[in-house]
Design goal:
Number of strands: 28
Oligomer: single chain
Strand content: 25-35%
Distance between the termini: 35 Å
Largest sheet: 4 strands, antiparallel
Structural class: mainly beta
Shape: elongated
Number of helices: 4
């Protein structure tokens, strides 16, 4: 098991939350690099210490009240100062004179092909977030999934009983839905592949489907779960839901009788769900410390579905799951506070390929779509985001700024920006993955998965 929700009901925190607007910028004046000109560090190797000592101890004597001297003596003193370069006004040196370039090889040594070969520029990883938004009432619960970034570049976040939408293209914020107290809080959100429709899991075991463009509820999925729905995953028109009742249900959102398969294997709450890019395998993680791989081809509505692999290597809750974008059968999983490990799996054989102890609770995992890199978010003690080089798992960067565990992460459609939401009730944006080699426009909304849905309740 892992640390779950942390509730705070003090009046001071309540008043503080009421005074903050959801998804509004936090204005922290940040100086540009050109403005940070208030500190100079002298270069000791470039300082003439003998001259400095003379100027400080001997050369300054009599400057305030100079003694009377004859014109000939004064002329001699000036000539002597010029000869020994004693007319300098600075004592400290802040930079060396650049050395003359040395040509080690003649120009014709290199071939024209070598000269014309383009070199890949070294990527700079910003150590601070690009933007910070307020996220009051964000539920501090490790087992929930309250953040998702859709293919139409709109980010959805659940704050208490309300789902807010933040349009990354223009920075506008809108409220999608606020559920009743008896049904909330909202426990999960997930965009459909078309970026237009969104699924919302509730504490009362129901799942709502909404059209974000018209702000209309299409239907409510009932009867599948008995307890809250904390995890959601789309596979085309199939919406997979994971509940606190340990069940995993495949729902065909196009038909009235939406339950088409039920996966049974977990013994406690299902807190992580991810379909592989091909849609053939489903990874599920639970509070029972188990990781399952399910094969879509063997699923059946007439009999219990048998898992492909039951993996017991983690020693704490398994919530963080991420399928590799460049190797179809590679899955990364992260364990909670009692485990702290990122593990890599061959999902065809069930073999554990590698295990890395991160030193803290692993809350979320994201692969870089453009490079062989993995990003993880963590809890106590640093509450950081860590960028790893794959497969060496060498740390490339550690991004700090959150003051509480970083529970959720979501990736922009172009794969460059990562949004992180933490228990400190802030939403931060990090340009951690750099620019893609060829930027692709966001795909157009495709209503096909919901073409037969007509606000079925």
């Amino acid at each position: 098991m892992d640390a779950g929700s942390v509730n705070s009901s003090s009046s001071s925190s309540y008043l503080n939350a009421q005074s903050r607007w959801p998804l509004r910028d936090q204005f922290h004046q940040k100086k540009s690099s050109k403005e940070n000109l208030d500190r100079f560090i002298p270069n000791r190797s470039a300082i003439d210490f003998d001259y400095a000592h003379y100027m400080l101890m001997e050369g300054r004597k009599g400057k305030e009240n100079p003694p009377a001297s004859s014109p000939s003596r004064e002329a001699y003193r000036k000539h002597l100062a010029e000869t020994f370069n004693m007319n300098r006004t600075r004592i400290l040196a802040f930079k060396n004179k650049p050395p003359a370039p040395v040509e080690l090889f003649p120009p014709h040594f290199f071939s024209s092909q070598q000269q014309d070969k383009p070199t890949k520029p070294k990527r700079s990883i910003p150590q601070t977030s690009e933007r910070t938004l307020d996220a009051p009432d964000l539920v501090d619960d490790y087992y929930l999934n309250l953040l998702d970034w859709g293919s139409c570049n709109v980010l959805a976040i659940a704050l208490g009983n309300t789902v807010y939408l933040w349009d990354a293209s223009n920075g506008s914020t809108s409220e999608l839905v606020t559920v009743d107290e008896e049904n909330g809080p909202i426990t999960s959100v997930s965009w459909a592949p078309d970026g237009q429709h969104i699924a919302i899991g509730l504490n009362n075991s129901e799942v709502q489907l909404w059209d974000s463009t018209s702000n209309k509820q299409l239907r409510t999925l009932k009867g599948g779960h008995r307890l809250r729905v904390g995890s959601l995953a789309w596979n085309n028109h199939i919406l997979t839901t994971g509940g606190m009742d340990s069940l995993i249900i495949n729902n065909d959102v196009r038909v009235r009788s939406h339950i088409v398969e039920t996966y049974r294997g977990h013994e406690q709450e299902v807190c992580g769900l991810k379909w592989s890019p091909s849609g053939q395998q489903l990874a599920s993680g639970g509070n029972d410390n188990l990781l399952f791989i399910w094969d879509r081809s063997t699923a059946s509505s007439n009999s219990p579905t048998q898992w492909a692999h039951r993996l017991e290597d983690h020693t704490s809750a398994v919530k963080a799951l991420a399928w590799c974008p460049f190797q179809s059968n590679l899955l990364a999983s992260g364990g909670g506070g009692g485990d702290r490990c990122i593990k890599f799996w061959n999902t065809h054989t069930g073999a554990c390929l590698n295990s890395v102890d991160t030193g803290s609770q692993v809350c979320s995992l994201l692969w870089n779509k453009n490079e062989r890199e993995l990003l993880s978010s963590h809890g106590f003690t640093q509450n950081q985001l860590t960028l790893w080089k794959y497969p060496s798992m060498v740390k490339m960067a550690e991004l700090t700024g959150h003051t509480s565990r970083v529970l959720f992460m979501a990736q922009s459609p172009d794969g460059c920006t990562v949004a992180s939401a933490a228990a400190d009730e802030t939403l931060k944006f990090w340009n951690v993955f750099g620019a893609p080699q060829a930027a692709k426009p966001a795909p157009k909304a495709n209503p096909e998965p919901f073409s037969h849905v007509n606000r079925i309740r």
